[in-house]
Amino acid sequence: LAKTTQPISMDSYEGQEVNITCSHNNIATNDYITWYQQFPSQGPRFIIQGYKTKVTNEVASLFIPADRKSSTLSLPRVSLSDTAVYYCLVGRGGGADGLTFGKGTHLIIQP
Amino acid sequence: DGGITQSPKYLFRKEGQNVTLSCEQNLNHDAMYWYRQDPGQGLRLIYYSQIVNDFQKGDIAEGYSVSREKKESFPLTVTSAQKNPTAFYLCASNLVGSDEQFFGPGTRLTVL
Predict the structure, then answer these.
(1) Do A95 and B31 touch (CB under 8 A)?
(2) A50 touching B, CB under 8 A?
(3) What letter would DSSP give residue B73?
(4) Which positions ≥6 away from A40 have C-beta within 8 Å?
(5) pLDDT, tens digit (0-9, with 9 covering 90-100), for B58-93
(6) How far is CA A19 from CA A73, A102, A105, B11, B49, in A?
């Protein structure tokens, strides 16, 4: 499985756009990039998944450059409720063998 | 409502005792998983099952056991052989072929 590197923590303010970058230099050709969000004492929640270029849903956008060695999760106009840990995962599609979670990025949103 | 339930939410046990954590899903998912999370850490895979009556060890299976007798249920037993069992345990499921795993609310196990 490709190893991922994310910032340990980030701070921002309500109403701002937040970008969290994940490095995955050893990503394989058939690997997908998936992001999860976790609140304290809860299970993680799927946010978005992509393979290349840009993916957007009602919650976030995911930007993946052509070399796929990094990816950026973009959260538009964050609110206090977006304070959580965000995990970047890289692995082959299908997820049948389970997921590998690193320590994630602790995002703190201030008023 | 469809979802995954775990019980109990908090569990205390004495050293040397086995304990079983429950996980039930009504999402009709084939695959189910157990993860362990320690404070400030990511999730680590304990066991997973892609089909009834079959399961595989994850990264940290030692000291744990599972069964998958029904599609809806995937109980985890923490045995006395697990040296440091105090942790937050999460159960998840997904459709085979999908990376979107659905997680339960978790069980926090404390060994006294």
Answers:
(1) yes
(2) no
(3) B
(4) none
(5) 999 999 999 999 999 999 999 988 889 999 999 999
(6) 6, 18, 11, 38, 35
